[in-house]
Automatic annotation (TrEMBL):
Organism name: Candidatus Altarchaeum hamiconexum
Catalysed reactions listed for this entry: dTMP + ATP = dTDP + ADP
Start and end residues of each Thymidylate kinase-like domain: 6-188
HAMAP family: Thymidylate_kinase
Protein name: Probable thymidylate kinase
Superkingdom as given in the UniProt entry: Archaea
GO cellular component: a single term: cytoplasm
NCBIfam families: DTMP_kinase
Length: 202
């Protein structure tokens, strides 16, 4: 089983590309689960309602809810039943978005028992492009979805990914997500094949 995580700022194409990778893998007859954080569970719903600005939690509570949603998420996945588990966002999102107000060491500590991904795909897209995509295609704008926030979150992502690579030996690959959906899709498959994450023979 390989656990592959997609990360990036809002509008970077996480949902699009994780679905395309799932379709590709299913086409190879592999067993695939595509999952997502925040989840559709009870704790995930509290988080989604906060992101949609319907309810409000202080930053520490929201951070703990994200970590609790993750333990609940992991407890409900039978990793052994699949060849690939793909997650659209995981703890690195939590670190990048919440470390603006919450200490990174605390964030890392409360995620200590979360399964380590085999490979993290970071979709690297300009914040301006992301905002354009979001405003063209969505009927609502969520918390963090403005240019200043996305720029800050992207900076955080880059710093944190470097830290996690060095300190925790996290396997991260950067994919230029500014290009067409098809070009990005191909790059993702190449990035996984190069790392021997995809054990597929044509
Ligand atoms: P995320 O899940 O990261 O927020 P989505 O996959 O939902 O992003 O993409 C946001 C919007 O941008 C969607 O309408 C999607 O169709 C569009 N989109 C995704 N990738 C690209 C791309 N490479 N080029 C142009 N538009 C894209």
């Amino acid at each position: 089983m390989k656990f592959i995580v997609f990360e990036g700022i809002d509008g970077s194409g996480l949902s699009t590309q994780s679905h395309l990778l799932k379709e590709y893998l299913l086409g190879t007859k592999a067993g695939v689960l595509l999952t997502k954080e925040p989840t559709d569970g009870m704790i995930g719903m509290l988080i989604k309602n906060t992101l949609r600005k319907r309810i409000n939690f202080d930053d520490t509570t929201l951070t703990l809810l994200f970590a609790a949603d993750r333990t609940d998420h992991l407890a409900n996945i039978n990793f052994d039943a699949y060849d690939y588990v793909l997650s659209d966002r995981y703890y690195i999102s939590n670190f990048a978005y919440q470390s603006q107000t919450i200490d990174l060491n605390f964030l890392i500590e409360i995620n200590r028992y979360a399964r380590k991904p085999d490979r993290v795909i970071f979709l690297d897209v300009k914040p301006e492009t992301c905002i354009e995509r979001i405003t063209h295609n969505r009927d609502h704008i969520e918390l963090y979805e403005n240019i200043e926030q996305l720029k800050l979150v992207k900076e955080n992502y880059l710093k944190i990914l470097e830290h996690l690579k060095t300190k925790f030996d996290l396997d991260v690959v950067f994919v230029d997500g500014n290009r067409s959906i098809e070009e990005v899709r191909k790059d993702i498959i190449d990035a996984l094949t190069d790392a021997n994450i995809l054990e597929i023979s044509d």
